[in-house]
Amino acid sequence: MGAHPRGARAPGLWPLRAPPLLLLLLLPVTSASEAEHRLFERLFEDYNEIIRPVANVSDPVIIQFEVSMSQLVKVDEVNQIMETNLWLKQIWNDYKLKWNPSDYDGAEFMRVPAQKIWKPDIVLYNNAVGDFQVDDKTKALLKYTGEVTWIPPAIFKSSCKIDVTYFPFDYQNCTMKFGSWSYDKAKIDLVLIGSSMNLKDYWESGEWAIIKAPGYKHDIKYNCCEEIYPDITYSLYIRRLPLFYTINLIIPCLLISFLTVLVFYLPSDCGEKVTLCISVLLSLTVFLLVITETIPSTSLVIPLIGEYLLFTMIFVTLSIVITVFVLNVHYRTPTTHTMPMWVKTIFLNFLPRVMFMTRPASNEGNTQKPRPFYSAELSNLNCFSRPEYKGCKEGYPCQNGMCDYCHHHRIKISNFSANLTRSSSSESLNAMLPLSALSPEIKEAIQSVKYIAENMKAQNEAKEVTLIPQGTSLDLPPGSDLFQVPFACCGEGRREASGSPVNGHLLFSALHLSL
User: Fold this and answer.
1) Lower CB density within 10 Å: C or N end of the chain?
2) Using an 8 Å Cβ cutoff, are 82 and 175 in contact?
3) Where does the sequence pass through the membrane (predicted)?
4) What is the pTM of this model?
5) What is d(CA 85, CA 70) in angstroms, rounded to the nearest whole number?
């Protein structure tokens, strides 16, 4: 071990000199702590936290009360519960907790656990879930004058009657009633601080906006007791922010409802009309289920949006019924159904006038009533194939479509049948019928018949000839017409052409093919 040089500081000597300096710095703190310790021991030496802090038993304890809203956590419409985060400010005077600051190094305030002092048992009367009384784990602030300030935070779930008539554009009024549960007005009297709830530290909610929250004091006598009990009630007026429901609920419902109208613009041949209606109905049903989970289950009122969805579902159901009826009528044909007279009256006479619809005008501008002879003349062609012939005059077709007896062996049918058998050209038909006197529907039918006749004559000419059985010889004079062949109406339905039997039905089948 070598000796330390002269003037050098030996290791460990500096820490031995440090404690005196630290003691000088810690003297005020130690003195203050000792003062608070002595003050605490003196205040709670004979203190009883159960006894009301009044010098005279008949005197009430005046409690100054104020509620500060920290957050509106949630409004449960289904269970009708409003959850809030509040600060309950309570101020009263306790004569047992006074001291002289000069005796305790000038200490004017002191914070003590709330379990050590007397506290008013103020609870939320309309609490729905949880404890009625606030937690006393927070500390209270004592002032040398005896004033006690206690601000415990609490999360309350209060009952609130929810009116969802105008959901989601609704306003709600939820009340919160605070008062002492054990002490009447003679023991505790409440004084409201301010005129409304303190919203300085309020955290804005994304669903609700607080319009106002006034406070009122009431002195009520209940049926259970003879004493009068004071309370302070806050009325919380809140408004729902409808942006979320507008974008996710209302606008989709409107668009889906608009699709119902578009169903009637689809052509009747489209097979998706009923499918679209049913899809719209299912979509509205899903939205109705979502609303049912949101709003309370009550029969007192029906939400406006629920009424709208119900009306829309009825409208969609009716549209499905009408669409089925339209499709049924569209696929009916003259061969399977006959249009009733009431349908013609309603849909051809009444509804067009109501809807300001007019019948399309003719291209030639001629509105002359068409001649109803087509069906009569065509029916006359069919009568020759029947065994029973009713009387007809030479050169005139039958009036009733049936022949009683043919008095002549030669029937002269007008240019209609001759031209129709000989050729189905446009010139012969136009010369035969004044097309300008026909309605547009008949004209379209004639043009279709002409087109079919021309194509069938050009493509199936050989097929028309084969309608006459093989081995049958027809010795017709040059320039003679097919319908001018002499035949005898013997009731057997046969013709004789130069002594050769020909089936009359086959000849008229060729006539129909040319049509």
Assistant:
1) N
2) no
3) 243-267, 274-296, 308-331
4) 0.59
5) 5
Alpha carbons 297 and 293: distance in angstroms, whole number:
8
Q: How many other C-beta atoms can be found within 10 angstroms of the C-beta atom of residue 260?
A: 21
Sorted by sequence, the CB contacts under 8 Å of residue 418 that are 6+ apart come out as 481, 483
What pLDDT score does 363 carry?
56
Which of 276, 246, 236 is CA-nearest to residue 258? 276
| CA atoms lying within 13 Å on the CB side of residue 432 | 21
User: What's the distance, Cα to Cα, between the start and end of the chain in Å?
Assistant: 142
| CA torsion through residues 320, 321, 322, 326, sign | positive
The alpha carbon torsion through 151, 157, 158, 161 (nearest 10 deg) reads 150
Residue 492 CB coordination number (10 Å): 9
Q: Encode 406-425: b = buried (16+ Cβ within 10 Å), e = exposed.
A: beeeebebeebbbbbbeebe
Strand partners for 216: 233
User: Which residues, given as ranges, of the chain have pLDDT below 70?
Assistant: 1-32, 361-439, 460-515
Please give the Cα distance from 121 to 133 (Å, whole number).
7
Integer Cα distance of 497 and 401 in angstroms: 26
pLDDT the model gives residue 438: 62
| Owner of token pair 């019928």 | 433
In three-state secondary structure terms, 477 is coil
Q: Which residues contact 19 (CB under 8 A, 6 or more apart)?
A: none
Q: How many CB atoms lie within 10 A of CB 67?
A: 26
Instruction: Enumerate the β-bridge partners of residue 223.
Output: none
For residues 145-178, b (16+ Cβ closer than 10 Å) or e, as one string? eebbebebebebbbbbebbbeebbebebebbbbb
- For the chain, the maximum distance between any two Cα atoms, rounded to a whole number of angstroms, is 171
For residue 185, the 8-state DSSP code is T
